[in-house]
Design a protein that fits this description.
Structural class: alpha/beta
Radius of gyration: 19 Å
Distance between the termini: 28 Å
Order of helices and strands: HEHEHEHEHEHEHHEHHH
Largest sheet: 7 strands, parallel
Oligomer: single chain
Helix content: 25-40%
Number of helices: 11
Shape: globular
Length: 307
């Protein structure tokens, strides 16, 4: 649901359910959870699916990392989504920012005070252990079925696993042929953590944000194009198939019904081992969604979280 305009959300959800989708990846920070809830309620009311058929994910925003705020943030997402429980709730970033009350601004985004003379992010010293304790309470109280994290590396995961009473079920990170993250994926497999790839098509979501160059599109790579032509599939389908075939969940984003259908039509073919290796060989360690870059450029705050 990232970057989906509010008026388009309910119709997109109906299109997705009709096409065959059952997983909706949302977040407080996306600013459209109320509209997402309207769309979900509409498809349930129409009998297009049952609640238990859906998998709805949301995410805890950076300003709600203190234990007392975790539950309130989750309850706000549940209210906006019109749901009694979430299938998955994720810590959105390993970034703790100063609390902004709901009545002051929601979603609060990145600036603490956007009207300040020199607005910037305001970090606070909240350990992940405190945030995670709040996440575990959500599971025990039935508000959430599963909990996990986004944008964590192996070191943070190791630390979290050392004290977690309920281990993270899912890690969601940027991953595509230009950012394969092989060691991170292998570690997650060893630990029984499901690895979910956001931006599985790479640069496409970032052109409009000025965070990627036009020549950085993996679907125009000759290797991908050749495989697609040989298989009678689109380059995007080949890249998405590579994602699921390497044992990762993927959350591609689109607002168009024809793309929804295209993205879902990847289970009637397989890539050969040579094809998989060739696509993996495109790796550049190119990260498009990097707070170490965009926070300084967009929010006047240098805030790296990756090496």
């Amino acid at each position: 649901m990232w970057k989906v305009d509010k008026p388009a959300v309910p119709g997109l959800i109906r299109d997705a359910v009709e096409v065959g989708y059952r997983h909706f990846d949302s977040a407080a920070d996306y600013g459209n959870e109320k509209e997402t809830g309207e769309g979900l309620q509409a498809v349930l009311d129409a009998g297009l699916c049952q609640r238990e058929d859906l998998w709805v994910t949301s995410k805890l925003w950076n300003t709600y990392h203190e234990r007392d705020h975790v539950r309130h943030a989750c309850e706000r997402s549940l209210a906006d989504l019109g749901l009694d429980y979430l299938d998955l709730y994720l810590v959105h970033f390993p970034i703790a920012l100063k609390y902004v009350p709901f009545e002051e601004r929601y979603p609060p985004e990145w600036f603490y005070d956007p009207n300040a003379e020199n607005p910037k992010m305001e970090p606070v010293k909240v350990p992940i252990s405190e945030t995670w304790a709040g996440m575990e309470e959500l599971v025990r109280d039935g508000l959430v079925k599963n909990i996990g994290v986004c944008n964590f590396g192996t070191s943070l995961l190791r630390d979290l696993l050392s004290y977690a009473e309920i281990p993270p079920a899912v890690l969601q990170v940027e991953s595509h042929p230009y950012l394969t993250q092989e060691k991170l994926l292998r570690f997650c497999e060893q630990q029984g953590i499901v690895y979910t790839a956001f931006s599985p098509l790479g640069a496409l979501s970032y052109f409009s944000l000025g965070m990627a160059e036009e020549n950085e599109s993996v679907i125009t790579e000759p290797t991908v194009v050749e495989i697609a032509e040989r298989l009678g599939k689109t380059p995007a389908q080949v890249v998405l198939r590579w994602g699921v075939q390497r044992n990762t969940a993927i959350v591609p984003k689109t607002s168009k019904r024809e793309r929804l259908e295209e993205n879902l039509a990847i289970f009637d073919f397989e890539l050969t081992a040579a094809d998989m290796d060739a696509i993996s060989g495109l790796n550049r360690n190119r990260r498009f969604n990097d707070p170490g870059h965009f926070c300084e450029e967009a929010f006047n705050t240098f805030f790296p979280i990756y090496e």
